[in-house]
Design a protein that fits this description.
164 residues; 29% strand; alpha+beta; three-stranded antiparallel beta sheet
């Protein structure tokens, strides 16, 4: 660790270990997303995303950009390992201060007592019928969580004005 760099709150890596990362902030939210994109990219009924401040994510400089593949949609950017295909991050264009880390890539032992608990389930309308969610008392949304769609609409409106 270089001078001036804070102690990591947790570490993580992709399946093959080519992409390693640290964060100086513990996860703030843990959201299970059942959207069709997350399902198809993971080959599973959902991806759990752990939100952290973007400024706290550190991917070492020796990780070549050639190792990271970026997938971009009209609202978000995702990164995956080019070698093993592990989802690593997802960040919405309207909120560059927060980035989601694919929770399955986090080294749980590195969380040092910061136990993660699911804080929400989104895109329930796209959840596969064959997958049952335990009664965990956590809030569930058919699409995005409260306030998300409004933020997205404002961002899209601002972007369209920039183009003009």
């Amino acid at each position: 660790m270089s001078p001036g760099q804070s102690t990591p709150a947790f570490t993580g890596q992709c399946h093959c270990g080519l992409i390693k990362y640290t964060s100086t902030s513990p996860p703030q939210n843990l959201t299970c997303c059942y959207c069709i994109t997350c399902r198809r990219l993971s080959g599973a009924p959902f991806i759990a995303w752990a939100d952290i401040p973007s400024s706290t994510l550190h991917i070492p400089p020796n990780t070549s950009n050639n190792n990271i593949r970026t997938l971009t949609s009209d609202i978000a950017e995702r990164t995956i390992c080019r070698e093993c295909g592990s989802s690593i991050t997802m960040q919405y264009g309207f909120d560059e201060a927060i980035i989601g880390i694919a929770a399955g890539t986090m080294d749980e032992a590195s969380l040092k007592g910061n136990e993660m608990k699911v804080t929400g389930h989104i895109f329930m309308e796209q959840k596969p019928n064959w997958y049952g969610i335990p009664k965990d008392g956590v809030k569930r949304w058919e699409r995005f969580s409260d306030g998300f769609e409004e933020k997205l609409q404002i961002w899209r409106s601002e972007r369209s004005r920039e183009v003009l």
